[in-house]
């Protein structure tokens, strides 16, 4: 890595640590010429993971698509844009934590449903009804099952 101060390409890493729950690696470097320190961040390249669609075609993971699905489900619900952004962030991090190269649309759908179920019942049911394409009452019951209050 070239030094941002003197532009020499002669650095050494003095410290390495994980940030953002381990999805980012932060390295403290020292320039061997001018002795100044600087920091570099290493993160997964966007689009590293590909989504396998139902017809077996593949496309890069698109966080905007995840966001649009969540926004549709949360429309007219008391959920702020900040909460939606937070959800997208958590879902994206979870996908990157579990999958390395490919993830199926169904698996993304399950992760999104799990997060929505914790956030808002109505948004969760809306998302699930579009996503699971309810064909029967029992499909619906399976989806509302996780919403039942748990005994303490
Ligand atoms: Zn330097």
Nutshell version of this structure?
The chain has 152 residues and is of the alpha+beta class. Helix content is 43%, strand content 22%.
Q: What compounds sit in this structure?
A: zinc ion
C-alpha-based Rg, rounded: 21 Å
- Beta-strand level of the residues, as a percent range? 15-25%
The string of secondary-structure elements, in order, is EEEEEHHEHHH
Contiguous helical run count: 5
Distance between the termini: 55 Å
Q: What is the overall silhouette?
A: elongated
Strand order of the largest sheet: 1-2-3
Low-pLDDT windows of residues: none
The count of DSSP E runs of length 2 or more, i.e. the number of strands, is 6
What does this structure look like?
This protein is an alpha+beta fold and 152 residues long. It has two domains: 11-43; 50-147. It is 43% helix and 22% strand. The protein has helices at residues 63-74, 81-98, 105-119, 121-132, 137-144; strands spanning 11-19, 24-31, 37-43, 50-52, 58-60, 102-104. The strands form two sheets. Strands 1-2-3 form a three-stranded antiparallel beta sheet, with no helix packed on it. Strands 5-4-6 form a three-stranded mixed beta sheet.
Question: Key terms for this structure?
Answer:
3-stranded antiparallel β-sheet; alpha+beta; 6 strands; binds zinc ion; 22% strand; 3-stranded mixed β-sheet; 152 residues; 5 helices
Question: Which helices and strands, and how do they pair?
Answer:
Blueprint (H helix, E strand, L loop, with lengths): L10 E9 L4 E8 L5 E7 L6 E3 L5 E3 L2 H12 L6 H18 L3 E3 H15 L1 H12 L4 H8 L8
Parallel strand pairs: 4-6
Antiparallel strand pairs: 1-2, 2-3, 4-5
């Amino acid at each position: 890595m070239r030094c941002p101060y003197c532009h020499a390409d002669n650095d050494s890493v003095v410290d390495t640590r994980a940030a953002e729950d381990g999805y980012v690696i932060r390295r403290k470097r020292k320039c061997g010429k001018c002795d100044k320190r600087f920091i570099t961040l290493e993160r997964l390249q966007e689009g590293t993971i590909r989504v396998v669609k139902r017809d077996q075609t593949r496309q890069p993971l698109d966080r905007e698509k995840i966001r649009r699905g969540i926004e549709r489900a949360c429309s007219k619900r008391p959920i702020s844009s900040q909460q939606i952004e937070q959800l997208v962030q958590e879902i994206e991090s979870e996908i990157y934590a579990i999958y390395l190269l490919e993830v199926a649309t169904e698996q993304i759908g399950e992760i999104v449903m799990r997060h929505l179920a914790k956030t808002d019942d109505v948004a969760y049911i809306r998302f699930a009804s579009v996503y699971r394409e309810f064909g029967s009452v029992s499909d619906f019951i399976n989806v509302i099952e996780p919403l039942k209050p748990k005994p303490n």
